[in-house]
Amino acid sequence: MPNQKILYITTEMYPYQEDTNMAAVVNKMALKMHQEGNDVRVFMPRFGQISERKFQLHEVIRLSGMNIIINDLDQPLIIKVASLPGERLQVYFIDNEEYFKRKQYYFDDEGNPFEDNDERAIFFARGVIETIKKLNWVPDVIHLNGWMSSFVPIYLKTYYESDTYFKDAKIVLSLYNEKDAELDKKIDEKLQFDNISGLKALDNPTIKSFVIESMNYVDAVVKGDEFLDEDLDKAFNETAAQKSEYLDIDSINQLY
């Protein structure tokens, strides 16, 4: 079914990240949908490991320059864009010196999670939503990949609930076995600043608990990894959202 507007929100995508299932799956899904005649856009964080020179990222001045308030602090939103190498597929990068310049993803060299991982996820989610609106491009399908993207549906169905911009978009969540970690205990205060409260994930805020929480705010959940760990598999089986087992790339359009 071509001519759909499909938005992929992801934390990983080949070739910007290599050797992970998520990065490969997102690349193949986005390319397949693009080549079938859909209008596809990809949004991801501009992690410090992604070479701007190698991948020819450049700042989009008309989209940058917005500030997003996280925990009462103004954080400047910088938007960069590149075409997927060899393809006419646009990838947008959410950037901010404070949150994404560091070379590691979520853990420091000793293996400890960054204390601001929660703020980075909030900034990413809100940055994507605000930029899409600024693009004046309304997606039919929003496909989420990676734990940071799980904050997007939570924000869309709470903070942005009265905003009709995304009201007709269907949200799909892919589940992957990502390394779990605790999030800052004060995340409840930061979310309360955006009038978000009452989430079950706040009882024990972790990367995984927010992925599980986000299942309550999406239309469909699909296994991104063929076999999920016990907690994710249990949540997958219990969710009220439409469910799909692992799909090979040739079958992904059935989901849409």
From TrEMBL:
Lineage, top ranks: Bacteria, Pseudomonadati, Bacteroidota, Flavobacteriia, Flavobacteriales
Database matches in Pfam families: Glyco_transf_5
Name listed for the protein in its UniProt record: starch synthase
Organism: Chryseobacterium candidae
First and last residue of the signal peptide: none
Enzyme Commission code(s) on record: 2.4.1.21
UniProt keyword Transferase present: yes
Catalytic reactions on record: [(1->4)-alpha-D-glucosyl](n) + ADP-alpha-D-glucose = [(1->4)-alpha-D-glucosyl](n+1) + ADP + H(+)
InterPro entries documented for this protein: Starch_synth_cat_dom
Domain of life: Bacteria
Keywords: Glycosyltransferase, Transferase
Domain Starch synthase catalytic: 5-179
Gene3D superfamilies, per the entry: Glycogen Phosphorylase B
Top-level EC class as recorded in UniProt: transferase
